[in-house]
Amino acid sequence: MKTKNIIKYVGISVVLSLLFTACNISYQATKKEVIASPVSYSNTTDTTNIAQLKWNQFFKDPFLVQLIDTALKNNQELNIMLREINVANNEIRARKGAYLPFVGIGGLAGADKIGRYTSQGASDANNTIIPGKKNPDMLPNYTIAAYANWEVDIWKKLRNARQSAVHTYLATVEGKNFMVTNLISEIANSYYELMALDNQLEILLKNIEIQKNALEIVRLQKISARVTELAVKKFEAEVLKNQGHLYYLKQQITVTENRINFLVGRYPQTIQRNSAQFKELISDSLTSGIPLQLLRNRPDLMAAEQTLLATKLDVKVAKACFYPSLMITSNLGTQAINPAYLATLPASTLYSIAGGAFAPLINRNALKANYASANAKQEQAVYNYERKILTGYVEVSNQLANIENLKKSYIFKTQQVEALIQSIDISTVLFKSARADYMEVLLTQRDALEAKFDLIEILKEQLSARVNLYKSLGGGWR
Question: How far is CA 128 from the centre of its chain?
């Protein structure tokens, strides 16, 4: 009786020492608060937000809508990301199975030869399994049994690991949504760039016709000795320069078309568009809502939040590794020296059940390193979350200012183009009446062409700013 009590007390002491050892691990995970975002972008509390619009409501051009729709089905990078989501989902299933009992069934066949001058050999020699027959020196052994192993999740280590996998999966889903947002904005920006190039090509063709007419006038005036050969060559060089620029624009159109086709997931082909409506695409006003809505709309912010939650659970998992693990194992089946006896019950019945607690006591450097790494990753996730919030606010603020400044710039650029168009007519009339130098005509035409190009560029930047604001607010993935 005293021996049993001694064993009992020793067992309790060992368990308490293991628990004490585990509890000595300090929890160093960061409690740092995430920086708060401002209340508004520009002193407005209007919560109306274009990010709530679906992408096929935000974009009105039917050709662009068709391109985006095709890209969401065929884009290879997006499809790769979808498979990443499947991988993350399977990780949840694996983690879930870890805290459930592992049950299996198996069979074993073998033979043992035990030395006669051993305790077991002597016992086998003095006993007979079958009456009247001596036990053979080599005893066969046949076993058919079911087995079960189960780690009792007393510290929630396995459940926290599963929940961490859930948050990682959700972060992967949000990563896919962020990719969708970027894909849509990239296609839209490339589409508007293509339309801008078409308009610049049209302007250049018209300008070449104007310059050819001016060249004919200069040639006639040279015949009448009103100008020299220098004027003719200057006008001729300007025409040739612009004719050469035509092929540059055509190459840019081809490159942009191929970029869109690549994003859509198809081989190069002509992109359908109506570039004549390029100047009519900017119509409705945009609403940005309040910065707090970024947390619900931007997929990258939501992904960073899920990653932060996952790292917090990973810290708990790493800490639980210092605690004792409770393992339960069991077997149930039949065992005999002859397959014919396997069904002889209960004589051939085999069963066992055991439980044990195990905890690391000495040389826990690997566990300490994992725990320190988990803490560092959690702090890293906090800073990354803060950076995402700050980046989102800055991006929206920049695009709002960009839209406003481009709107004002477009007004002045339009007036400049109108003034230069009038200057072309005036300089041509003055040149014909010998009241203006040919260089004035040439420079006026050149300035007008550059101003028209700049005007188209501002229009493209306005459309891109609208797309980028929609993306920055978290629109497009719904």
Answer: 71
Q: What does R_g of the chain's alpha carbons equal in angstroms?
A: 40
Q: Rounded to the nearest 5 degrees, what angle is found at the Cα of 107, between the Cα atoms of 103 and 109?
A: 155
Domains and CATH numbers, the chain: 15-99+155-323+366-472 (1.20.1600.10), 102-152+325-358 (2.20.200.10)
Measured CA distances, 411 to 16, 197, 331, 455 (Å): 80, 21, 85, 9
Q: Could you count the other beta carbons within 10 Å of the beta carbon of residue 367?
A: 15
> Which residue in 190, 192, 178 sits closest to 78, CA to CA?
178
Residue pair 68/55 in contact (Cβ under 8 Å)? The answer is: yes
Mean pLDDT over 448-457 rounds to 95
Name the packing angle between helices 157-223 and 438-472 (round to 10°).
170
Question: From CA 70, how far away is CA 262, in angstroms rounded?
Answer: 11
In terms of Cβ atoms closer than 10 Å to its own Cβ (0-12, 13-18, 19+), residue 96 is: middle
Indicate if the alpha-carbon torsion angle 277, 278, 279, 283 is positive or negative. positive
pTM for the model: 0.84
- Summarised one tens digit per residue, pLDDT across range 219-235 is 988 888 888 899 899 99
For 35-61, what is the mean pLDDT? 84
Give per-residue pLDDT as tens, 120-169: 777 777 777 667 666 676 778 889 999 999 999 989 999 999 999 999 99
Q: In residues, how long is the chain? A: 478
Q: How far apart are CA 423 and CA 452, in angstroms?
A: 14
Extract long-range pairs of 263-270: CB within 8 Å, 24+ residues apart. 263/71, 263/75, 263/183, 263/186, 263/187, 263/190, 264/67, 264/70, 264/71, 264/74, 264/75, 264/187, 265/70, 265/71, 265/73, 265/74, 265/75, 265/76, 266/70, 266/74
